[in-house]
Amino acid sequence: MPQVDEYVSVSEAKNKLLDLIRRMKHKQEVVAITRDGVPSAVLLSMDQFEGLVETIEILSDQKSMRPLRRSLKQAEKGQWVSHDAVFGRENL
């Protein structure tokens, strides 16, 4: 998850909304909007939002996660596949 780059109050966010949206698009920043000093909402780019949703969908799909979990267990045991075995010697 991206880190929060800036915290702004609701009133400040309201006054700077267009500028904040432009920054989201160009710099991929994440802004937390606070109410009474407490973070209450997050403003992020559409690309970041779509990436988060896609990640959640993948992580919640047990069929997709099975091979990943198996690979992680193999890696923890030091069971690696060499570059040569995957791509062949000529690709070095």
Major sheet, described briefly?
3 strands, mixed
Enumerate the strands of the largest sheet in spatial order, edge to edge or round the barrel: 1-2-3
Q: What portion of the residues fall into strands of 2 or more residues?
A: 15-25%
Return the structural class. alpha+beta
The CATH top-level class label of the domain at 6-44: Alpha Beta
Notes on the structure:
With 92 residues, the protein is an alpha+beta fold. It has a domain at 6-44: YefM-like fold, CATH 3.40.1620. Helices cover 57% and strands 16% of the residues. The chain contains five helices and three strands; from the N terminus they run E-H-H-E-E-H-H-H. The protein has helices spanning 10-15, 17-27, 46-60, 62-76, 83-87; strands at residues 6-9, 31-35, 38-43. It has a three-stranded mixed beta sheet. Strand 2 (31-35) and strand 3 (38-43) form a beta hairpin.
